[in-house]
Amino acid sequence: MSEWIEREGKVFMQFFNRYSIVVERGEGCWLYDEDGKKYLDLIAGIACVSVGHGNEFVASRIAEQARKLMHVSNLFYTKPQVELAEKLKEITSLDRFFFTNSGTESVEAALKIARRATGRKKFVAFTNGFHGRTMGALSVTWKEKFRKPFEPLVGPVSFADFNSIESLERAADRDTAAVILEPVQGEAGVFPADRDFVRRIFELRDELGFLVIFDEVQTGFGRTGEWFAKDIYNATPDIMTMAKAMGNGFPVGAVAVSEDVHTKIEKGDHGSTFGGNPLACEAALATIEYIEQNNLLENARRMGELFMNGLKGLDFVEDVRGFGLMIGVSVGDAKGLSQHLMSRSVLVNATSERDVRIIPPLTIREEEVSFALSAFREYGV
């Protein structure tokens, strides 16, 4: 066992199940351990490293901003914060933005805003949905394993069956402040929402007066081959959360709202000490700029199609689904497959006993997809 793993076991809270790898550095789509062995990274910091490890363009922009100004608090205006909000308005089609440090913070803000804007308390979420682990975000996260030890949570929350219009119609009512949806359920194993299901959510919004929150923490910033998964569904939510890939792994997130929602909130309703600090905003601006300059939305679509077509031809693969470079694969033994792939220097994430998630950097190249598919083909041989 590595000295570092042994030392970690003595000082770090043991919340995580980790791979037995001590990562030393990264380059592009590859990670290198303390002994110099390299692995093709199809996890990307759980969909965070959008433009590749060690990206010099992003790193130089962060370094330049760090030398000028890292933090002053939201008592003052800063140029990177304004520039980032303007850029997000351009690519999201939403109107107002508040910056956070993570996805779960973005969800917490979204829930507060929904209650404030509607004057209602209830939320509707969905089976197998995941929105974070802080108390509000956890309250709309479905899995009992995550929820039960920390009850009572924020309520009321009704869980409808994902992709079931009938279950949705039973759960939503005139007491509902918001329906919160992952357009593609990530932690569950990459399961997209049906188009008719999404359409019905918006019809019910118009009938019952609740708000629609899209949790795009994992699906945002090109992951699905579009800037956001909402673009695939041609739907604009009232509130949208984002984080993960926003800063190429730098801790930054945001919640976006329509102008109509914004008119119903007041100064002092929410806040953050570190949210939207100049360093985080510059990291996000550089990441977005790199995605644009290198046409990574198109690359995500092309490489995703190549990946999915290759996986569909394998005998042990039961199902392949997703958009762009957000791919779910169902197999008989997900853990066994992930262990096999790690032995072949390919890293994937088993999200359940049967499901594997593939979420590499958007910079992945054809030869790297081929390398991964070769490792998949060797499974069971």
From TrEMBL:
Pathway the protein takes part in: Amino-acid biosynthesis
Annotated EC: 2.6.1.11, 2.6.1.17
InterPro entries: AcOrn/SuccOrn_fam, Aminotrans_3, Aminotrans_3_PPA_site, Class-III_PLP-dep_AT, PyrdxlP-dep_Trfase, PyrdxlP-dep_Trfase_major, PyrdxlP-dep_Trfase_small
Cofactors: pyridoxal 5'-phosphate
NCBIfam families (alphabetical): argD (TIGR00707), PRK01278.1 (NF002325)
The family this protein is said to belong to: Belongs to the class-III pyridoxal-phosphate-dependent aminotransferase family.
Record's protein name: Transaminase, acetylornithine/succinylornithine family
Organism: Geoglobus ahangari
Source taxonomy: Archaea, Methanobacteriati, Methanobacteriota, Archaeoglobi, Archaeoglobales
